[in-house]
């Protein structure tokens, strides 16, 4: 507010009544939580709410630290929500790492780091899904019936060979 003219509307958001800002922030945090449960990335949430990814991240941190205040004293941890958020975070990390890996001008060493980060994020996603029983830990025994080197040599030795056969191409 302008101290010289109290009737003049505030020019900046920080001059508004703090209760209005608190109400807006609480509403945004609920929206962030709902969007995150729908597995939206930090970037997607930020774009939808017209705020930065850093603001979305700070809101999620606040929600994790104050979930009881936000959701009430009898609220219980919903493991599916926690697991969903964890998977979404790993997906965000993987996507950002892969995006960074294909940027122009990045060194091979940094590309390798990005790809290793993406791989680690994917491994953690798979491990979490395995721990939940959604994905089997092993696919079972894989049987491939390819001939051995000894079997290939024996088949070649037993095969008829005619050097005058037009199907044989001389590469010599």
Describe the structure.
By secondary structure, the chain is mostly helical. It has two domains: 66 residues; 61 residues. The protein is 60% helix and 0% strand. The protein contains seven helices and no strands. Helix 1 packs across helix 3 and helix 5 packs antiparallel against helix 6. The longest helix has 25 residues. It starts with 17 loop residues before the first helix and ends in a 14-residue tail after the last helix. 6% of the residues are buried.
Summarize the SSE layout with pairings.
Blueprint: H1 18-37, H2 42-49, H3 53-65, H4 67-71, H5 79-101, H6 108-132, H7 149-158
Helix pairs in contact: 1-3, 2-3, 5-6
Keyphrases for this structure?
2 domains; about 0% strand; 7 helices; mainly alpha
User: Uncertain spans, ≥5 residues at pLDDT below 50?
Assistant: none
How does the helix and strand content classify structurally?
A: mainly alpha
Report helical residue fraction. 55-70%
Strand content: under 5%
What is the total number of structural domains? 2
Order of helices and strands: HHHHHHH
Total number of strands = 0
Judging from the principal axes of the Cα atoms, what is the shape?
elongated
Distance between the termini: 92 Å
Average pLDDT rating: 79
Largest pleated sheet: none
Q: Count of DSSP helices? A: 7
Instruction: Tell me the radius of gyration.
Output: 30 Å
